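2.7 Reproducibility. Because tokenized structures are sensitive to small changes in the input, we list the exact sequence used for D-2-hydroxyglutarate dehydrogenase, including any N-terminal residues retained from the expression construct. No trimming or masking was applied before prediction.
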Amino acid sequence: MTASHAFVDACAGLLGASHVLTDAHDTEPYLVDWRKRYRGSACAVLLPADTEQVAAIVRLARGHRIAIVPQGGNTGLAGGATPDASGAQAVISLKRLNRVRDIDPHNNTITVEAGVVLAELQARAESAQRLFPLRLAAEGSCTIGGNLSTNAGGTGVLRYGNTRELCVGLEVVTAQGEIWDGLRGLRKDNTGYDLRDLFIGAEGTLGIITAAVMKLHPAPVAKVTALTGLASPHAALDFLSMAQHHAAALLTGFELMSEFSMRLVGRHFPQLHYPFGQPHAQTVLLELSDSESDEHARALFERLMEEALEKGIVEDAVVAENLAQSQAFWDLREHIPLAQAEEGLNIKHDIAVPISSIGRFIDETDAIIAKAVPGVRMVTFGHLGDGNLHHNVQAPEGLDAKQFLAEFQTPINELVYDQVHRHRGSISAEHGLGQLKVDEAMHYKSPVEVRLMQSIKAALDPDNLMNPGKVVRWNATPVKENAT
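Resulting structure tokens (single pass, no recycling of outputs):
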């Protein structure tokens, strides 16, 4: 009997045969990433019911030398939750760990298991008159464990921070199959290394997050949502500074959308109405969240817009008059990736640069790409308030998209990532590295940074069985210092 067969049989005894999937029809949804860019194979897909079962699986995997790939809602965009093609790895789906363990209104925290869907967490917070502010397009299917493992961003980072900033405690199964209970719910705990932050964003390469204590916030009394038309990303930066001056912490959303992004949405989703009579080079979706009143929020917004229009920073603006219109504005933003998919295959970049560099980055990089591939169409949108830009490249009109990707994806990636590096940015802002960008990360990070990451991996997962091949390149060979 092979090691993988022995492992699968042992897991069936542990979990019950119905929670160990090996039939191709049953395992298929777990072996393909959301974008269908990566397709792997696995000796089994395992569905544990609780943290103790996850820990027992890890101990079995270690004993049989089976690599394991943790998976949440399988909505990732970098292939981080997809096994390799060997068929020797096992997928551990956390979707049965879906309980809300506790809501503490006085501590403003909620304790949830890793398989809780983000929308469910939001709803449970709302039932306690609280806000959980993480907002993502995939919130109906992504899970909090996956959000933490990739340190997901979303539209509220400007005010509330990434998922890391929303977490105060973790429960983790280590690579040795031990359970670390860090579910303390403390804002202050200055007792050594911050293990919580080490596991967040590690994409399951150091251990498996099984539960978390997440921060809640007071639910806003009122929201004001508006769309504004501007002449350039430079004007959008000026508008951001002005909005932050006027609104401070009330500014909870500031999304930048290029003209072509809006045209794509209009082409493929004509029911979504762009409210301006003429196109603008850039459109900003702005949202204020107020704890006082709707009148207070609107008065503040009116003062902001009066100054922005008077100074010529904003060309036009329209304010949502009700919740339906507010949602319609957000639908324009959220449908950009869907419109891209309808238009055809494209080259995606989830990058971050210092906020002050965004205008220069767009001008310079768009010009470089246009020179290299005449006729390309730039789909530029993102969270301007935190420097996260989705800088995507659509094939020239009439050119076969598959041919475009085959010929130009690698050189365009190099052009964009070189520009990101020159502006001291990051090649992955909120999607993680997974297997998509691991080699590029090893290239653009300094040797010191790479060695530190490899050392952490070697210390916590010396057998390299936790999601190998993702985030950091390391082959379980002990890391040695250079001779001096």
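The chain has 16 helices and 19 strands.
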